[in-house]
Design a protein that fits this description.
about 180 residues, alpha+beta, 3-stranded mixed β-sheet, about 10% strand
Length: about 180
């Protein structure tokens, strides 16, 4: 983003004109904000991270293609629960996330993968409605959607835990000790 072409960078771009959503935190050229987020995730080791954005209100985004299948499955399950709850309650927004054949993969890792690769947290990208046409939700409707989303996500984590349990295909003896992992 040429800095001389903008008067105010705002949400996505930092002071250097880098779109932080697409900053590759694995490269030595990663921005200070990406390093700070990675350090925070490493220090706090959350089980789940909600990354908040706005668009037309697609809610929870589909699974991140670079994450293990078990984590993608958790992302999908949570997205379905949120979407169905909002639909039952009459919300105008109740999209169920999809990830299927033909979906375009991002060319690099993105900020939503940082939590998993740093500390194993399940990342959830939330796209709240922002109240623009043609479907102008009111402030109260957007707030209700957000609070309901939070309630479903927290209920899921409390009831089932965010981090997926290892399956038999994921488990193998420790190559150094020869012992099998114990189910948590």
């Amino acid at each position: 983003m040429p800095l001389e072409m903008v008067g105010w960078l705002g949400a996505y771009f930092n002071d250097r004109g880098v779109n932080l959503v697409h900053d590759n935190f694995l490269l030595p050229t990663a921005q200070p904000e990406s390093h700070a987020l990675a350090a925070l995730y490493h220090a706090e080791t959350p089980d789940c991270v909600l990354l908040s954005h706005t668009n037309a209100g697609s809610l929870l985004m589909g699974p991140s293609p670079f994450l293990p299948a078990a984590v993608q499955h958790q992302q999908s399950k949570i997205g379905v629960l949120v979407g169905m709850r909002l639909r039952r309650e009459g919300s105008t927004r109740y999209r169920i996330p999809e990830c299927g054949p033909g979906e375009i993969l991002p060319p690099t890792f993105q900020h939503d993968q940082i939590p998993y690769f740093v500390c194993g947290a399940v990342p959830l990208v939330v796209e709240y409605p922002c109240g623009y046409r043609p479907t102008c939700e009111t402030f109260d409707q957007i707030l209700d959607i957000g609070l309901t989303l939070f309630e479903e996500v927290f209920t899921f984590g409390n009831a089932y835990r965010f981090r997926p349990r290892a399956t038999l295909t994921d488990r193998a003896p420790n190559p150094f000790t020869g012992k099998w992992p114990v189910e948590p």
